[in-house]
């Protein structure tokens, strides 16, 4: 019995099997290295896109605040607007409600 087990182990060529396993590990290592490098590049590109977007938003906010300041500093009377004689509010009651959905 011991002899048959030993012969079955020896039937498997040891060096070519280990070489094949080492080759598979090398291919897997190179593949994983490529995945990590790709992830790093994508991460850097997305970080740059975020920085560019923040810069664009900052520019737009600056323009917006400058325009609002200009509008707030304007005198409406110079544009032809006059103050209303009286201010009134419409008062009413809601008698019926409606829904946009139909049954």
Protein traits:
single chain, 103 residues, mainly alpha
Order of helices and strands: HH
Cα end-to-end separation: 83 Å
Radius of gyration: 39 Å
Give the averaged pLDDT, no decimals. 85
Task: Please report the number of helical segments.
Answer: 2
Assembly form of the protein:
single chain
Q: Give the low-pLDDT segments.
A: none
- Basic shape: elongated
- Total number of beta strands: 0
Estimated structural class = mainly alpha
Main beta sheet: none
**DSSP helix fraction:** 55-70%
Percent strand: under 5%
Describe the fold and architecture:
The protein is built from 2 helices and no strands. With 103 residues, it is mainly alpha-helical. The protein has a domain at 11-72. The longest helix is centred in the middle third of the chain and has 60 residues, at 14-73. The protein is elongated, with a radius of gyration of 39 Å. The termini are far apart.
Ordered list of secondary-structure elements with their pairings:
Elements: H1 2-11, H2 14-73
Task: Briefly say what this structure is.
This protein is an all-alpha fold and 103 residues long.
